[in-house]
Structure formats: structure tokens, C-alpha cells
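Table S2 (text version). Query chain:
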Amino acid sequence: MESLTVCTPTYNDVDTVHRALSSIENIADEIVVLDSFSDDGTREIVSRYNQSVIYDYEFEGFADLFRTAASKASNKWVLFVDADEEVRNGLRSEIKNVLKSPTKDAYQTTKCNRMWGKWMHTQHKPRPILARKDALQWDDALVGEEWLVQEGYDTGTLSNPIHHYAYDSIDEYIEKWMRYTSADALTEVRQNSKPSVIYFYLKGVLAVAYRYLWERAILDGWQGAFFSLMSGVFYVVVDAKMRQINSIKKNHDDWEEWWIENKL
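Corresponding C-alpha cell output:
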């Protein structure tokens, strides 16, 4: 059976990290935790797990975080589990079976999301969360990073989802949503993209329709309607923040440093 390193990023996750690590404790030979200087007791909880190794990490974007975590793993196979996620029995058993004799280089699965007291029908795009660490790569987006399996490596699919306890409160969601719009706007400006009402507003309309109808958020009551609408407004706000960044650039040479410090 292949040895497994579980990679978990943390930042002030004292309320959730125990659930996450307990769910993978009996399949992990090593737990690599990249902690962004938590001060709420998160590190003390992590240290209770004998397999855990904690590294200090200055956050520079999710893609960099995942690459760094994989590089710290001492085993060939890695499993990515966020501090607000849980690997339940079905997925745990499936992972154990895969590692007995892997036939693929990476295995993707979906996320089942809990938001505002409800398990939602809408899910994340499948991600290769279990893989040989040299098979994975990520783009350089600060948020919304794309998980990729490198050319020449084969991908399989796990039948069980990972469970994600996403948001308990609207305030928590809005706070993170605001930071993500700021990060996405910065990524767009870095790539020399131009603000465009036609492009970003149309993208927002399509995002609402996709989330609400195709991803079946229509079945999720007010939570689904709210989440779908905010998914579309996201792009409208990104367009506005790109315009704000371009205005700041005209007057401040250190505009990027200022934006990261004040908006992210």
C-alpha cells in the first residue's frame, strides 16, 4: 500500500480543524500543515496528531500554498484536505482501496458544500485532490486557482465526494467574498485584462443561470437563490475593482503592495 501525506492549510481554524484531521487520521502516514500564523489555538490542536508537521506559511495565494504543501510532503502520494472539510467513511475507504494498487496518477472528486445550515446541490468543479505529488500543477491565480493534472499523467474519478463546511453565517461569506473579488481583480489587472461592462456583466448573468439551473441551486431554497445571485454579482464587482486598481496605479507606484495589504 502506498504511503500517504495529507496536506492541510490552516489559519485560525480552531472550530473546524479537529474534525478535518480526525477524518483522515487513520489513512495518513504524514500530515503536512501549512499554517499562516494562527493565534486562536489551531496549532495546538494540530500538534496533538502524531503524524503532523507544522510549517509557517506567509500567504501568497492558493496556488502557491498548494505547491508549497506538496513540496513539503515526504511521500509520493498526497491528499489535499482543507481545515473546513471532512473525509467521510465512503471516501476514506475508497482512498484506502486506491492506494493498495493505484491504476491512475491522480484521482478527482467533487465537493459537497454545506452553507447556512443546508447541504447544497451545487458543487465545486471536480478537483484531483488525491495524486502523485509530481502529477499536479496549479495556475497562478490568487483565488479560484485551477487544479491541473500534468500532461502524460492519467486521471481517475472517485465516486464519493469530500464534504465541505463552507459557511455558517452570511457575514462570514460576505467578508470572504469581498476578499476574493479583490484578489480576482488583481489577477485580471496583472494579466493586462481590461475592464468591460459587456464582458464581465454578461459573465455574471451566465454565472447566475449556470449556478441556479445547471448546478441545481434552484432546489436549495433561499440559500441556493442567494448563492447563485452572489456568484453573478461577483463579476460585476470584479469589473468595478479593476477600474479602482487602474485609478490607483496612476497615482501610486506601490499600488500592488497597497492593494494586497489593504484588500486581501
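Notes on Table S2: The first strand starts at residue 4 and ends at 10. The mean pLDDT is 95.
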